[in-house]
Amino acid sequence: MAARAGEWLLPAIFFLLVAVLFPFAIGPERALLARIAPAILWVAALLAALLPVGALYAADAADGTLDQFAVRGVAGETLALARIGSLWLALAVPLLPAFPLAALMLGLEPSAWPGHAARLLGGLLGLAALANMAGALTLGARGGGGLAGLLVLPMALPILIFGVGAAGGTAAGPGSAALWLAASVLLLVAVAPFAVAQALAGTRS
Amino acid sequence: MHALANPARFRRLAEALTPWLAGAGLLLVGTGLFIGLVLAPADYLQGQSVRIMYVHVPAAWLALGGYLGMALAALTARIWKHPVADVAVHAIAPVGATFAAVCLLTGSIWGRPTWGTWWQWDGRLTSMLLLFFLYLGVIALLSAWDDRAQGARAAGLLAIVGTINLPIIKFSVEWWNTLHQPASIRLSGSSIHAAMLQPLLISAIGFALLFAAAVFMRMRAILAEQQREARLRRRAVAA
Fold first, then answer.
1. Using CA atoms, how far apart are residues B104 and B60, in angstroms rounded to an integer?
2. Residue ranges making up the domain that contains A112
3. Beta carbons of A137 and B78 less than 8 Å apart
4. Taking CB atoms and an 8 Å cutoff, what residues of chain A touch B134?
5. What is the DSSP string of B174-186?
6. Which of A25, A200, B103, B190 would disulfide-bridge B60, Cβ 3.0–4.6 Å?
7. ipTM > 0.85, yes or no
8. Which chain B residue has the Cα nearest residue A135?
9. pTM of the model
10. How is domain B22-182+194-238 classified at the architecture level of CATH?
């Protein structure tokens, strides 16, 4: 990923913008906004994670970096795992300071912030895995952006459901939703490197 | 399986099988729907509306089974580089998506009189919608490259990864006990009366045969198209 100045801030700005869109769309009713704030924050984070999908592998495929890694015997799975970790950092580091700002504007109870932020951080790891999978699968495809959305959004639903469920509490209790969230994130992180490696190998042959 | 790796031989086989599958499928669907819509008793609780079950349930089964078949074909293509398996992925995707759409539509129509709503955010409904989106993702990937093999590779990968969703759909009615009823038909027995179960099974087998016939027809069409492209390429090289 190219590190142009200010580019690393893009996910945070996007996250804030999406979170701010909702009060405009729904109206400034504090009680309603506070109630749906966790859902808004999760949707905003999901969309922010979708943002860099198209750029994840495109430049490295075009200038031959991916081929160089392959020639030097770096396993595709290792590369994918490193990419998932780095995307997670690239998303989590800017989103962490943006989170209290958005939570404050939406009127979320301050006592709930640490819990939400922790779950969001965990969920972002799963979203980073999904984004890498979509980025590798759509490498060189026509209509990349919309296509990536079509791939990521359905697969991200468990994270969204259990993430927000962990926040609001489901019938089975908030604890079980947090465990389900952790399970879906771990499953995605375990599967994604292999899928990414296979997809990247496919573009080389 | 390796005998079928020869596209020409597969096409001959598919050509011979298609009319039988389609004929038997139409016959069984006709019989099943006639018994189901005319002869079978109405439900004591749901009245006549229960009759949509004879379309809804087979569509749901086939949408799920079709996805599993597509994922298995993708796995076969990946492991054995089976040339016909790739074509199968390509052929199953739109047919399965159609059945998923039929399942969602009939379910919605059925839900209106019995549940009082067209749509409810219930576990089974939502995960079926998810399956439909997965099908759409596979279809979109298939046609996203000029190189057909590249699209087949990516779509096959997505199909394999997407199988994570199948157990979620299957068990959604047990995990989230919301609106959709739990499965009535299990391997250990059925809670549906024989008068309703019989037409249901007949129409389900019929729809399955029609599904297979449609897939075989699509596979033949895709293979023919590939052959034509290859021939055009050869002619262009020769010229």
1. 8
2. 7-204
3. no
4. 154
5. HHS-SSSPPPSEE
6. B103
7. no
8. B154
9. 0.80
10. Up-down Bundle (1.20)
